[in-house]
Amino acid sequence: MKIEIRNSTLIINTQTYHFPIDYEEFKKQVGIPSKVWEKSENHILTWDNLGIFAHRDKKNTIYSLNIYLKEGDKLDYLPRQTFQGEYLIEGKNIKQREVVMEEIHGELAIYNFLNDDENEIRIAFIDYFPTVDPSEKIFDEELYTFRPLDGKEVTFKDFNFKLAVIQVLMYEKQLLEPYFDIVEFAKWYSQRDIDLDKEGHDIIPEVKSFFETLPIDEELALKVTEIHQSVENAVYMNILMFWDGSGSPFHITSAEDAENFPNLKKVNLFMGEGTHLSDEFKRLNIEVNKA
């Protein structure tokens, strides 16, 4: 397989593509994916034999293509082998070019995550995210208004623990409302224009405020039995749009909030070296593993 960026265009073998790519047309070129990861809101399609994976949205279109160039964490959605084909940018093989961490080629934003100093998944990320056109603004004032709770609100001391809970209740079990979509939110938010293309590399203050103030009923807390942190969790894609999995912005630092979730029995967590977090969860009879 040959993947090339030429004149701001994505070319696979001899076929030219423009994002977002129709999945059915893409499948005709590269074949049926060997596995589909459905634990995130937007599905991840993986071609093990080609060493590539892609993100597909609700409209059945592909909005990112990932080239797995260097083995890293053994996450379920990653290809079983690395990409063995040609990867060219404007005629130069990626191995012959100066390493550029981020560059824009027309409609394509290219992110290079091959820095050996970073403990992260080793991938080259060719990505496209839609910007928000002011003419597409949503004027429904009630869309992101919080509903009154039937019972008592759960209080949290660790914001990252709350995000992990939101992942379960909102994006996996679909019990928590209002359902948050960062693109929709940017169209809805009226106090200023949110430029996702420019601001999506950081946590947008208004988005963080939404998740911080989002009330969670104690009755819903009973529905949380497992927590699985992953770089592909929808909650992280919605609060930090261009996060590449590096650093520790979502590390939980305390198990104290788990006491409000009596049915929580298992957690897979982001954990740094030397942390006592595992012992804290075990004291609460919660099985804990490193994500």
Structural write-up:
This protein has 291 residues and is an alpha+beta fold. The protein has helices at residues 23-30, 159-172, 182-188, 196-199, 205-213, 218-221, 234-239, 277-283; strands at residues 2-6, 9-12, 15-17, 21-22, 35-37, 43-47, 52-56, 61-70, 86-89, 92-93, 102-105, 108-113, 122-127, 226-228, 266-269, 287-290. Strands 4, 5, 6, 7, 8, 11, 12 and 13 form an eight-stranded antiparallel beta sheet that branches. Strands 3-2-1-9-10 form a five-stranded mixed beta sheet, with no helix packed on it. A hairpin with a 4-residue loop joins strand 7 and strand 8. The radius of gyration is 20 Å and the shape is globular. The two termini are 32 Å apart.
- Spatial separation of the terminal alpha carbons: 32 Å
Which residues form runs of ≥5 with pLDDT under 50? 116-122
Morphology call: globular
- Gyration radius, to the nearest Å? 20 Å
What is the percentage of strand-forming residues? 15-25%
The percent range for helix content is 10-25%
| Backbone structural class | alpha+beta
Break the fold down into its secondary structure elements and pairings:
Elements: E1 2-6, E2 9-12, E3 15-17, E4 21-22, H1 23-30, E5 35-37, E6 43-47, E7 52-56, E8 61-70, E9 86-89, E10 92-93, E11 102-105, E12 108-113, E13 122-127, H2 159-172, H3 182-188, H4 196-199, H5 205-213, H6 218-221, E14 226-228, H7 234-239, E15 266-269, H8 277-283, E16 287-290
Please sum up the structure shown.
This protein has eight helices and 16 strands. It has 291 residues and is of the alpha+beta class. The chain starts with a strand and ends with a strand.
